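Hi everyone, sorry if this is the wrong subforum. Our group has a chain we'd like a structural model of before ordering constructs, and none of us has done structure prediction before. Sequence below.
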Amino acid sequence: MIPVFLLLVLGTLDLGVGVFRHNTLSQAARQGSRQAIVHGKLAPAGWNGGPWGPTTIDVPSTATGMPVLDSVKPTLVGCPPADTRVRVEWPDGGNAVGDRVRVTVTSAYRPVIAWIFGGGTISLSATSTMPIAH
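Answer:
Right subforum, don't worry. Here is the predicted structure as tokens:
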């Protein structure tokens, strides 16, 4: 009975941690896209990194000196920095007002159950797309 009980408890904890991390990634993607929509073509050059895009940004969360990462990093609580990536894309090909910006944050998650019984990591990902406002 004890092994079954422990399996259920560990499985419940793993599920809770996985949901927490997914929600964390969702919040990070929303925060990144909120920052990106005010850094369109009309953003002043000296203001918090000036205009962003339309070149795709795809960096690990351990990178430094990138304004988009500075806005996303505080929300990545509980996600291992080495296994987390931030990708910013402009699907419409430009950074003018009304064009869209998409921020995707991904992270690897290895549940305790997979560590005990063998198994791989689970790739968690969240995306937020918003129109550029400025």
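For your construct planning: The longest strand covers residues 100-109. The beta strands are 57-60, 84-89, 100-109, 122-131.
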